[in-house]
Design goal:
The chain has 13 helices and 25 strands. By secondary structure, the chain is an alpha/beta fold. It has two domains: about 350 residues, Spore Coat Polysaccharide Biosynthesis Protein SpsA, Chain A; about 100 residues, 3 Solenoid (UDP N-Acetylglucosamine Acyltransferase, domain 1). It is an enzyme of class 2 (transferase).
């Protein structure tokens, strides 16, 4: 322990807490054998436990909604890097619309809320050791915005060798040969790291009662006043401590976690927990009709109570990884929504799809940059000029994976108001003011290139082979 203390220096206290947290998680991992659910005990949630959003909205809003807002804090999960989209640094710093990053849009949303209702909803960012430094540098630019921003760091746990089950780290450093030895253990870590940071108690002291938690890359996750009012209007003895926003599953969402009834509790079932024989059943749109958006409303006093009693029970997700040198490791994670079963009077709210607008890929990025959405005070809303409520299905090939390359392939973003489906594969570029309608499939074969000319209008078209427009 002495050398451990010396190696860590000023970070000793937080590292000690990380170490204790990992020890607990690892101990549980060694004890648990077999799947964490018995398939035969799974039931659909009772009707009253998942309320339609329309029913909650029908209650209207009180005259003093700002009183409700004074008891709220917004927490954004900001631990992820932009590597899957070919970017260095925190994902929240990728520009998604009119030069605005995810973080810019979040700050604009909350500032607008605070100005409109003359309130003081703080923004809390849960960073990881991967994103903390870069995020803190950028926060300087929001000093004169009407939003108080707090940050705390989630834990840093060691990856373990799949064969030996020993940590692969040589020392406590996070760089050099140790760069791949550590990981942030999933967003289920929010409860302990929020508590350890002192921020949980600070917010409770300031009179905050609920947090609204969501992924920072979900551009649909804005503060919903109707859900907030519903929480605040419950009688004190029946106070709902946890709301999970769910939405109807489509073919694109078959891997999303779902709400089930299990041992008389609502419970989140993730695909990682499903026995192999039942994966197809889990993915079916008929049996499990809803999935978790990861927009969650959670009681702060309840988190404090459950933390004090060590009563938060979240299933362990074993995430296998292969490192650059070919070494197989596992990282143990938990999901924030998995704690639903520990809270009193927990419920789901089936919200419109518009509250789930994640940007995970360049295909998602194309949608949010296009004229399908209009931007107002940091919030994206579907254009009134689109005749269908659903978004087009967009699949861009590997030439579009990295954001920089993606941007270089569009002179500007095409008109997509009447688009149903777009597939693009291979070396394809788009000129200015292209319009896409119906189903459009563009496939450039290996070695070929397709340049869609400026002003082109493609409606229900398949373009393949080689289409190259050269300057004369």
């Amino acid at each position: 322990l002495t050398s451990y203390r010396a190696g860590v220096g000023k970070h000793f206290d937080s590292s000690r807490k990380d170490f204790q947290g990992f020890q607990k998680l690892f101990h549980r991992f060694l004890q648990v054998k077999g799947p964490s659910v018995e398939w035969s005990k799974i039931n659909r949630p009772p009707e009253q436990s998942v309320q339609p959003y329309e029913k909650i909205k029908a209650k209207g809003l009180p005259a003093d909604i700002s009183t409700c807002l004074s008891k709220l804090a917004v927490v954004k999960l900001n631990g992820g890097l932009g590597t899957s989209m070919g970017c260095k640094g925190p994902k929240s710093l990728i520009s998604v619309r009119n030069e605005n990053t995810f973080l810019d849009l979040t700050v604009q949303q909350i500032e607008h809320l605070n100005k409109t209702f003359n309130t003081d909803v703080p923004l809390v960012l849960m960073n990881s050791f991967n994103t903390d430094d870069d995020t803190k540098k950028i926060l300087q630019k929001y000093k004169h915005h009407r939003v108080n921003i707090h940050t705390f760091n989630q834990s840093r746990y060691p990856r373990i060798n799949k064969e030996s089950l020993l940590p692969i780290a040589k020392n406590m450093a996070v760089n050099g040969e140790n760069a791949e030895a550590w990981y942030p253990p999933g967003h289920g870590d929010i409860y302990s790291s929020f508590s350890n940071s002192g921020l949980l108690d600070k917010l409770i002291t300031e009179g905050k009662e609920y947090i609204f938690v969501s992924n920072i890359d979900n551009l649909g996750a804005t503060v919903d006043l109707f859900i907030l009012h519903h929480l605040m209007s419950q009688p004190a003895d029946k106070r709902c401590e946890f709301i999970m926003e769910v939405t109807d599953k489509t073919r694109a969402d078959v891997k999303g976690g779902t709400l089930i009834q299990y041992d008389d509790h609502l419970r989140l079932l993730e695909i990682a927990q499903v026995p192999k024989a039942h994966v197809d059943e889990f993915k079916s749109v008929t049996k499990f009709k809803i999935f978790n958006t990861n927009n969650l409303w959670i009681s702060l006093p309840a988190i404090r109570r459950l933390q004090d009693k060590n009563a938060l029970d979240m299933e362990i997700i074993v995430n296998p990884k292969t490192l650059k040198g070919g070494l197989n490791v596992i990282q143990l994670e938990t999901a924030v929504g998995a704690a639903i079963k520990s809270f009193s009077n927990a419920m789901g709210v089936n919200v419109p799809r518009s509250r789930f607008l994640p940007v995970k890929t360049s295909s998602d990025l194309l949608l949010v940059m296009s004229n399908l959405y209009s931007l107002d005070a940091g919030s994206l809303t579907m254009s009134k000029r689109r005749e269908f409520p659903t978004t087009p299905h967009v699949k861009l090939g590997s030439s579009f994976t990295k954001v920089q390359e993606f941007l270089s392939r569009f002179d500007n973003i095409p008109d997509m108001l009447e688009l149903d489906h777009l597939t693009v594969s291979g070396d394809v570029t788009f000129g200015k003011n292209v319009s896409l309608k119906g189903t459009v499939i563009i496939i450039a074969n290996h070695g070929d290139r397709i340049d869609i000319p400026a002003g082109a209008m493609l409606e229900n078209k398949i373009v393949s082979g080689n289409l190259r427009i050269l300057d004369h």
